[in-house]
Amino acid sequence: MDTSNVSIAVLGGGSFGTVIANIAASNGNKVSLWVRDSEQALRINSESTNTTYHPELKLSENINASDNLDSVVKNASIIFIATPSSIFETIVIRIKPLIAKNTKIISCTKGIKNDPFKTMSDLIGEHICFDNSNSVGVLSGPNLAKEIAEKKVSGTVIASKDKELIEETKEILSSDTFKIYSSSDIYGVELAGALKNIYAIICGIADSLGVGENAIGLILTRSMAEMSRFAVAKGANPITFLGLAGMGDLVATCTSKLSRNFQLGISLGNGLKLSQAKETVGQVAEGVRTLDVVRSESKRLNINMPLMDSLYEIIYNGLNPSVLIDDLVNNSNEIDVEFVNKDIK
């Protein structure tokens, strides 16, 4: 597919938005990058660097940064939204009157909205309808932005019901070091990306406690069980969680010190309060926000998620982080892989 005439907008000049914009621009595409700070936009355009997030990365000259959201999205035929989940809906509402009916919209944000429970693709579908002529996609995977910026081999998943959107995304973002896989399970890919941030915090706490690698392996597999149990209750395919967006992202985020949520967990395990831990991490760690939303929904649907419940007690009720391991060992659920036999409850 020829994407030479595609106008690309990336909304969000944070860690991931910057590297996505740079890959697309390095492939010869003209990319408009929306940032909230006019001074940041000026520095990106004049110095070809985003010193706030990737001072080491020389950005393509095909990127034009701006704090004017209207001008960035006005003529875009494909839009990647990579903002924090806290402002995602606001951005979607703002761009609705500015985009054409055939504009493709891809969420790169790993978060969930509460009251009621909605994913980022739900928000796109709710606010940008245009008689269903706007295609929606979700981009998610083990995408630690610093490694992508350093051109270390990475992969991601583009999920959509629109095959043209999938092929166009592959054409725009594929490189020698960035591999794009496809899926039709939008909800599964999206939930996997959001849920794993909770368990990255848990693994960070466990790592700070010095529990050992066997215990980390146990936590990872029980995390996957909880994630897939929740996702299936919400209509996703459990097989999605065996792939790059599920297990791949979970392992990377739960074991890497480049992961903001893992770093947050380490700080909590070392005795810092939540506010102190957030300050130590510096950037947005979506896992805390997702924890509130998913715990509320799991209680409403009566889904058993003991690891998540332990994390909630540690963060909000001041329990000692060691309770995490105690609850893990003492939990009565002894089923290993829950979806091997559909009759197992």
Report on this structure.
The protein is α/β, with parallel strands linked by helices. The protein folds into 2 domains: 177 residues, NAD(P)-binding Rossmann-like Domain (Rossmann fold), CATH 3.40.50; 143 residues, N-(1-d-carboxylethyl)-l-norvaline Dehydrogenase, domain 2 (Orthogonal Bundle), CATH 1.10.1040. It contains 15 helices and 10 strands. The strands form 2 sheets. It has an 8-stranded mixed β-sheet, with helices on both faces. A two-stranded antiparallel sheet has the order 6-7. Strand 6 and strand 7 form a beta hairpin. The chain is globular. The mean pLDDT is 91.
Instruction: Note the beta-strand portion.
Output: 5-15%
CATH class of the largest domain: Alpha Beta
State the helical fraction. 40-55%
> Class by helix and strand content?
alpha/beta
